Amino acid sequence: MFDQAATQLHTVRDLLRFAVSRFTEAGLSFGHGSDNAYDEAAYLILHTLKLPLDRLEPFLDARLVSDEVEQVLDVLARRANLRLPAAYLTQEAWLGDYRFFVDERVIVPRSFIAELLPEALAPWIEYPELVHRALDMCTGSGCLAILLADAYPDAEVDAVDLSADALAVAAINVADYGLQERITLIQSDLFAALAGQEYDLIISNPPYVNAPSVAELPDEYRHEPELALGSGEDGLDATREILRCAPAFLSEHGVLVVEIGHNRDELEAAFPQLPFTWLATASGDGFVFLLSRQDLLAAA
Predict the structure, then answer these.
(1) Sign of the torsion angle spanned by Cα atoms 169, 175, 181, 183
(2) In a 10 Å sphere around its CB, with 0-12 CB exposed, 13-18 middle and 19+ buried, how is residue 214 labelled?
(3) Is 110's pLDDT higher than 90?
(4) β-pairing, 133-137 with 199-204?
(5) Torsion-angle region of residue 199: left (phi > 0), alpha (psi -120 to 50) or beta?
(6) Strand 133-137 to strand 183-187: parallel, antiparallel, or no bridges (unpaired)?
(7) pTM of this structure
(8) Whether the predicted pLDDT of 19 surpasses 80
(9) CA angle 169, 170, 172 (to 5 degrees)
(10) Does pLDDT of 183 surpass 90?
(11) pLDDT tens string 189-223
């Protein structure tokens, strides 16, 4: 059908209608930057045509040359037939106003922590300048490490990941933002290579999908590195290790912030002694917890 469409579609409006129909027909799953067929189709079309991503209406009735139609159809076909996340097709992903390079070596950036820096942490970190050293554990593309460096301009940031491939992508993003002097990329299995380090703030968006959910993931998510998704039967293996090790790496007034997806009930049942503070996000207050070093030590 995509081959036949090349001679019959002439405008952006034509392509948009065709894309939404094909995406719906294919039963695609969304969640890597958009949550519906229309928004994703509009994004892919505008990006491929190198048009502003926030201005669709002025271009809807623009007639395209045949090469442009073919380029758009090629991208749409790869999305529908291969079920590749849009971010891998465009090699970019956004967190708020921040743009990042991505490919299949890293999970597509998406984190509730991004919306919390720095204002939501102010009750525990009164002034940004008090953060001298920060750690982004399980950094992936480096997106949260970059947001950390921007939110806390006096901080040196360590960005840790087990995957050398992920760190190669993170290096591209760190360089794009000119932060090579402030962000250090470290290959490590969680805290294993960080002996002797101390941080005023540790954030982490670790793997947290439980085994049953991993088995049921849509095809789009199966293109992402498995290492960055699952974490044991209940999804909490990485989080358990972070909680166990974090006190030794936090400064006296240090703070730990961790994203755990839909695992709040399981986590609270596993650690009833910990006084988790659940931070409010746009999607609710059950996805990101905060603990101080004192909280962790008192419950040990």
Answers:
(1) negative
(2) middle
(3) yes
(4) parallel
(5) beta
(6) unpaired
(7) 0.94
(8) yes
(9) 65
(10) yes
(11) 999 999 999 999 999 999 999 999 999 999 999 99
Give pLDDT, residue 93: 96
Beta carbons within 8 Å of 114's beta carbon, 6+ residues apart: 95, 96, 98, 143, 144, 147
In the chain, how many H helices and how many E strands? 12, 9
Q: Is 165 exposed, middle or buried (0-12, 13-18, 19+ CB in 10 A)?
A: middle
pLDDT at 300 over 80: no
pLDDT given for residue 6 in this prediction: 76
Could you tell me the domains of the chain? 2-90 (1.10.8), 107-298 (3.40.50.150)
Which amino acid is it at 243? L
Q: Reply yes or no on whether the pLDDT at 1 is more than 80.
A: no
Query: According to the model, what pLDDT value does residue 107 have?
Result: 96
Q: How many whole angstroms separate alpha carbon 83 and alpha carbon 217?
A: 12
- 24: its two tokens: 């719906």
Structure tokens at 151: 């939110």
How far apart are the C-alpha atoms of 43 and 41, rounded to whole Å? 5
